[in-house]
Amino acid sequence: MASSSTSKLSGKRAFVTGASSGIGRAIAVALAEHGADVVVCARRQRRLAEVVSEIESAGGSACGIVADFTDEAKIIDAISAGAEAEGGGLDILVNSAGLARQASLVDGEYSDWADMMNLNVLGLATACREALKFFPDTGGQILNLCSMSGHRVPGRGGFYSATKFAVRAMTEGLRQELRLAGNHTRVSCISPGFVDTELLDEYFASASSPLSRDEAIKFPILKAEDIAALAIHQLTAPEHVDITDVLLRPTHQAV
Ligand SMILES: NC(=O)c1ccc[n+]([C@@H]2O[C@H](COP(=O)([O-])OP(=O)(O)OC[C@H]3O[C@@H](n4cnc5c(N)ncnc54)[C@H](OP(=O)(O)O)[C@@H]3O)[C@@H](O)[C@H]2O)c1
């Protein structure tokens, strides 16, 4: 017999950004396991094909769309193509595409700041705006990947942190705008501490005098599947429940 979360997500049409690896991939797989039809999106076609194949071999439904989410026109096309692949609509948008570099605010590179701003802030805002056009009149759901860095500023990660404070502000700002317009779409975020993904390797490799990831983190950290389990919990909450933000820390992470 189907679990209640399977029946709640059964037939829902979900678009997941950053689905070629890490948290986005784990959420896409979990959504499909719970009965959703999933559009997986990112730049690396081969990785997306692997996710589609994993979902289909488990009996789920998925299609892949390649797009760079730092380019407004490509985001517009990708979301429109995703909705078309799902029969003309979407019910869920998960914004997991993101980038983290330790780019100093004292002497960092403009290009690092721009890369993070374009993807983490402008890409996410554009994806929300475009997906809303394809949600049902009764409202859909948007889940943004924020971070503990959207709640506190880690040393050497000030610019990344600024983009994640922006994600939290956009999540709340969009929620309020929609309510004022009488739109019942729920907009939430998840704010994880360290998660074992490729992003952490890039983050620790990007400092000018880098501590390696293994030197910096000497305790068990979260797995992408931990975030996916929380995402399913948020996305299957009863309609009158809006879980707006959840901090999820590795138990041993002090700050
Ligand atoms: N890992 C952590 O410790 C941690 C903690 C807190 C929050 N987060 C947040 O969680 C989210 C997911 O990160 P992750 O840890 O899963 O990292 P990840 O494994 O590196 O995944 C990042 C995803 O973003 C996609 N992406 C990167 N640049 C892109 C672009 N220009 N256009 C489209 N897609 C792009 C990547 O795919 P392609 O390269 O194929 O495009 C990949 O699928 C991010 O928003 C991150 O800030 C992570």
Helix and strand arrangement:
Elements: H1 4-9, E1 13-17, H2 22-33, E2 37-42, H3 45-57, E3 61-66, H4 72-85, E4 92-95, H5 110-132, E5 141-145, H6 158-180, E6 186-192, H7 198-205, H8 213-216, H9 224-235, E7 245-248
Parallel strand pairs: 1-2, 1-4, 2-3, 4-5, 5-6, 6-7
The protein binds NADP nicotinamide-adenine-dinucleotide phosphate.
NADP nicotinamide-adenine-dinucleotide phosphate is lined by residues 18-24, 42-44, 47, 68-70, 96-100, 119, 145, 147, 192, 194-195, 197-200.
Short description:
The protein has 255 residues and is an alpha/beta fold.
Give a description of the structure:
With 255 residues, this protein is of the alpha/beta class. It has a single domain (4-248), classed as Rossmann fold. 45% of the residues lie in helices and 15% in strands. The chain is built from nine helices and seven strands, in the order αβαβαβαβαβαβαααβ. A seven-stranded parallel beta sheet has the order 3-2-1-4-5-6-7, with helices on both faces. Helix 6 links the parallel strand 5 and strand 6 (186-192). Helix 2 packs across helix 9 (224-235), helix 4 (72-85) packs parallel to helix 5 and helix 5 (110-132) packs parallel to helix 6. The N and C termini lie far apart (42 Å). The model has no long low-confidence stretch (mean pLDDT 96). Residues 18-24, 42-44, 47, 68-70, 96-100, 119, 145, 147, 192, 194-195, 197-200 line the site of NADP nicotinamide-adenine-dinucleotide phosphate.
